[in-house]
């Protein structure tokens, strides 16, 4: 031990001897604050929340919304994904990214007859690297957002896991009469669900209250006609998603209106939970706690 080290050691010993057992505990390092950054990037919008001190050792959960919903990526409005869910994910130490893809929220409003599933899957992959390239990424999508996340994971990779909430394409048929589908398609390049149709299609009455319906209407957005067409096609044939190409953990949540998906042998590692008491838009119901808890529990495997 050199003279300087011996001197410092002596000072520490004298200090401890002077205060005995009354020495205050050492001051812990400050807890790094969460920071939020909004990306106004063509063609998507995104909002990243992360802890800078953990940036080099952190995964990010990238949330994608379904038909007619916005994720609030511009930071100016409500999001389908609740503050409670986002906080529970962040409390794990995971960064969060809310993404509005073309045709949703404040993102690019390109020709609604051109914006489809494959374009949005490519945009999601683009956002994953431009917004969260410093993190490992896990996709979480709702409804057609689930199909988008799964398609992006299958086609482009670059993620550590993917969760599909209300993954309705495995229903045997759409829960909308053919005449309603035709009337919607006749609206033009962008389609708007009426409040009555939203209630019938997205909700399960015993699990929904006035506040849930009010938030649903606040989130209501016109959506691209091609995306609607792509979503309907997946009810009949989900093979274009190429789910067998996904080689990372997969988690599916299905609700009262959704068909029960039985994983094929090629995709038998997918974990599936069925919530019979919740409708398709589970986040907006009176007690979404069980579905949130199950998702957060699945995400724990990605905490470093």
Describe the structure in your own words.
By secondary structure, the protein is an alpha/beta fold. It has one domain: Alpha/Beta hydrolase fold, catalytic domain (Rossmann fold, 3-Layer(aba) Sandwich), CATH 3.40.50. The chain has nine helices and ten strands. It has an eight-stranded mixed β-sheet with strand order 1-2-4-3-5-6-9-10, with helices on both faces. A two-stranded antiparallel sheet has the order 7-8.
In short:
With 304 residues, this protein is of the alpha/beta class. It has 9 helices and 10 strands.
List keywords for this structure.
304 residues; alpha/beta; two-stranded antiparallel ribbon; Rossmann fold; 9 helices; 17% strand; single chain; 8-stranded mixed beta sheet; 34% helix
């Amino acid at each position: 031990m050199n003279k300087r080290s011996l001197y410092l050691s002596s000072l520490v010993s004298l200090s401890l001897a002077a205060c005995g057992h009354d020495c205050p505990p050492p001051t812990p390092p400050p807890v790094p604050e969460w920071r939020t950054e909004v990306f106004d990037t063509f063609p998507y919008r995104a909002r990243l929340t992360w802890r800078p001190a953990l940036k080099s050792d952190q995964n990010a959960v990238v949330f994608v919304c379904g038909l007619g919903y916005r994720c609030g990526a511009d930071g100016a409005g409500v999001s389908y994904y609740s503050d409670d869910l986002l906080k529970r994910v962040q409390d794990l130490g995971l960064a969060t990214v809310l993404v509005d893809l073309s045709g949703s929220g404040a993102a690019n409003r390109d020709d609604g007859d051109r914006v489809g599933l494959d374009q949005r899957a490519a945009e999601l992959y683009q956002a994953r690297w431009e917004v969260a390239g410093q993190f490992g990424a896990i996709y979480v999508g709702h409804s057609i957002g689930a199909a988008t996340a799964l398609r992006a994971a299958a086609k482009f990779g670059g993620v550590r896991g993917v969760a599909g909430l209300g993954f309705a394409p495995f229903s045997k048929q759409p829960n909308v009469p053919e005449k309603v589908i035709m009337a919607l398609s006749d609206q033009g390049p962008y389609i708007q669900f009426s409040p009555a149709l939203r209630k019938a299609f997205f909700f399960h009455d015993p699990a929904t209250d006035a506040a849930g319906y009010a938030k649903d209407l606040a989130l209501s957005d016109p959506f691209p006609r091609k995306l609607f067409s792509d979503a309907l096609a997946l009810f009949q044939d989900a093979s274009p998603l190429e789910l067998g190409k996904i080689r990372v953990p997969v988690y599916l949540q299905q609700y009262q209106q959704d068909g029960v998906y039985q994983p094929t042998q090629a995709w038998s590692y997918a974990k599936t939970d069925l919530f019979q008491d919740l409708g398709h838009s589970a986040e907006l119901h009176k007690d979404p706690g069980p579905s949130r808890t199950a998702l957060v529990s699945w995400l724990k495997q990605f905490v470093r």
